[in-house]
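Notebook, p. 212. Picked up where the previous page left off. The plan for this session was modest: take the two constructs that came back from the sequencing core last week, fold each one, and keep the raw output in the notebook itself so nobody has to go hunting through shared drives later. Recording the first one now, exactly as returned: residue sequence, then the C-alpha cell string.
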Amino acid sequence: MKPNIILCLASSLLVTSAAHAANTADDIFDLDNLRVKITAQLPYVEIHHHGEPVLLMRHQDPGNTIAPRFVPTSRDCPPFCVQPMSVDPDVQTIGELELIDYLQRADAGEDVLIIDSRTPDWTADGTIPGSMNIPWTRLDLAHADNA
C-alpha cells in the first residue's frame, strides 16, 4: 500500500510565527487554561518529532505580531505575484486543521508522510514537527540534479 504523502508548502500557517512547537519537558504553559487555542475544542496537539514529544500550539501572546520580513503587503510583481490556491489538479490543497489531522495520524503510526518542502534557509527558523524536509528545489525537475 502506498503511503499518504502530504506536501507542506511554505505557505502553510503552521510554519509561521502564529504557531509554535514547544518541548513538553519545558512545562511553561498551563495547558488546561490556554488563552489562544487552535480551535475552541482543540487547545494544542502533542506529537513526536525525532522521537521527542512536542506540543503544537498557537503563540500565546495575543499582542504578538508577524516577523518583519512578512510585513510588506505591496511588492513588485513579478516576482511577488498572486498565486493560485491549488498548484496542480493532482496536488491536494489542505488547510491547517487537515495538516494537524495528518500529523496526528502519522504520529499514531498510520502510513502517512508529511514533507516540509521549504529550503534550509527557511527551516533554520523552524520546521513542521513530525515532517521530513525535502527542499522544493529537489522536487522541481527544473532544479534537479541530472546525476
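Okay, moving on. Second construct, recorded in the same format:
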Amino acid sequence: LKVRMRATLYLAVLACSIALACSISTKPKNYEYEELEKWVIANGGMVNTVIGKNSKGYRGLFTKVAAKAGDKVATISGACMLNTGSITGTFLTPTLTVLRELLHPDSRLKPYLNVLPKRDE
C-alpha cells in the first residue's frame, strides 16, 4: 500500500510539474512536455494526457482519450522515479538529490528536470 501511495504521489508531482512548466516555458509551448512524454514512454510508462485550456481559458492537463473513474491516464515506471528513500520530515535529502541531478549534464532525469521552473521564472 505504501508503494502504491508513493507512486501516486510521484505521478501527481510529475503531472503538476508538466502543467506548470508548460504554462511558464519560454520555449515552444509543448516542447518540454513532448520530450518528457517520450522519455516516460521509452522507460516503460504511459501518458494519455495533453496540455490544453478549458472553456474558461485555464491551462491544465487533459486526457487524450475518454476516461471514466478508475481509468489510468498515466503510469510512471520505476526508471523515471527519483527515490530519496525514507523522507524524515526534512527537505534536505530531496533537495540535495535534485540539486545533484541538476548539476549532472547527463542526468537520467534530464527530461523531467527540464520541465521544472527555471530560477528566473
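Notes on construct two before I forget. Helices lie at 2-24, 31-42, 92-103, 110-113.
Flagging for discussion at group meeting.
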